[in-house]
């Protein structure tokens, strides 16, 4: 999909701040520093729409990006090793949980993992949480360009097995450097709202 129009509509923390209307929404989840911002920027063909931070844990709100007037990407705070207090982490957890479990417009969660490493315990917990609530999921395994091609299948297998990937959940290899997987990711997203 060629993206010509994209805007950050709102950074929300409470349901009453979510955008109105019924455009389909796709939440982006993943640990801090996994490359969510790079994924968003590659998908929409922009260099810096989503801010890439050297400090994990910078996203502290639900950021609603409206794309082509047809859908939203919703960037949620990363989980994992962000240097924030336990209290803050719990507040984010509640905010994310409220959004994911109660938002009718949410079509699927795009769970971003690092292909170079087995999914973390937090990745597995997030995936299990989505399965528990019956929320469709697209798994994007980023940083494929950092691994020799000959090892891709091995790494995909580890990701699949660690998450105990359910039948029908798509696992897409992705590189925000080379654009590998971009078309596949768009096809997966479109399959939820066409």
CATH top-level class: Alpha Beta
**Protein structure class:** alpha/beta
Biggest sheet, in brief? 7 strands, mixed
> pLDDT under 50 segments (min length 5)?
53-57
Overall pLDDT level? 88
| Shape, per Cα inertia axes | globular
Number of domains: 1
CATH H-level homologous superfamily name: P-loop containing nucleotide triphosphate hydrolases
Q: Helix fraction?
A: 25-40%
Strand content: 15-25%
Quickly give the CATH architecture: 3-Layer(aba) Sandwich
Distance between the termini: 13 Å
Order of helices and strands: EEHEEHEHEHEH
The count of helical stretches stands at 5
> Got a strand count?
7
**CATH topology title:** Rossmann fold
- Whole-angstrom Rg: 16 Å
Strand order of the largest sheet: 1-3-4-2-5-6-7
Q: Can you offer a commentary on this structure?
A:
It is a single chain. The chain is built from 5 helices and 7 strands, in the order ββαββαβαβαβα. It is of the alpha/beta class and 194 residues long. It has a 7-stranded mixed β-sheet, with helices on both faces. Strand 3 and strand 4 (71-75) form a beta hairpin. The two termini are 13 Å apart. Residues 53-57 have low confidence and may be disordered. Keywords: Cell cycle, Cell division, GTP-binding, Magnesium, Metal-binding, Nucleotide-binding, Septation. Residues 22-194 form the EngB-type G domain. InterPro entries: G_ENGB_dom, GTP-bd, GTP-bd_ribosome_bio_YsxC, P-loop_NTPase. Belongs to the TRAFAC class TrmE-Era-EngA-EngB-Septin-like GTPase superfamily. EngB GTPase family.
